[in-house]
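Entry:
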Amino acid sequence: MIGPLSTTYAGDMSLSSTKASMLVATPILVGALGRIVVGSLTDRFGGRVMFIAICLASILPVLAVGVAGTIDSYPLLLVFGFFLGIAGTVFAVGIPFANNWYEPARRGFATGVFGAGMVGTALSAFFTPRFVAWFGLLTAHVIIAVALALTAVICLLVMRDSPAFTPNTEAVLPKLAAAAKLGVTWEMCFLYAVVFGGFVAFSNYLPTYIKTIYDFSAVDAGARTAGFALAAVIARPIGGALSDRIPPKYVVLVSLAGTAVMAFIAVFQPPPDLWSAVTFIGLALFLGMGTGGVFAWVARRAPAKSVGSVTGIVAAAGGLGGYFPPLVMGASYDEVDNDYTFGLLLLVATALIALAYTAIRLHAHEPVPRDRPAAAT
């Protein structure tokens, strides 16, 4: 809700590029780090309880952000935006929840479908500026708070944990420590930080980017950002489904190669609307495919009893991957030439490094995790 309104806040409060990027990045940071704990809590209490808890816990920050924006207080927006990041932790709930309901051969598609909930980013980019124009800033936030409350009620009434779910009652810190000792955790952290981090960064910073480079209004920039997010949403379950049929490594390799190419093309500021749309939608498709591929890989490689903990750490890495790029983009913006060349080239370099690492160091066919019995030979 802050990303689509960042240009409005920047104009109303005369914020510098750095301050505006900090405003966008702060909720991402909390949403990222909070996933570490939430993933482990999901192993213990199950997805149903955690979905309800996060929906309810997000209501007050949403309302507080609306109040801070109404009174044009940048410090309060930062503080309340910090707590707004609680909503972003929900990703670490859904992956283990979906894993428990599906057999291994279907988990790539299942987690991809859950990950398509990223469509909320597209909806927010499209509707938030319009809600503000139609109803006012505070009322727009009240609408979202009501939606969160209704979602919690729906979860209470219809959501059930899988019969296969077994609560892991070990203490959180030892579980996290055990997950942190697994090589798969850090390998997937690196890849997810690139692909999901790229998606988060662009879906939040793109309104500012589009307005700065192409001089669109906040509403028009939001509509174009919604197109970017929607493309990634569509691609995510496709990446997951492909990873059920072929080794996820190859899906991730295609994603990283495509990301590097599209980010390099963006350096040259393709003209609006057709060529810029093709460039950024192409970038979104590759990033979305990669997010589906990486978590299908996690589902295959993580030990069953540690899926929540591993998911939490990997999801946190993805969120952190989305935290720094807006700050880099804001700090490296060239006002004289009106471009973000440095930030985009940094994405190109990062994608190429991840591509080389995946191709050389990671195996297409992984060994069976320690707590899953191997098939009889």
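The chain has a mean pLDDT of 86.
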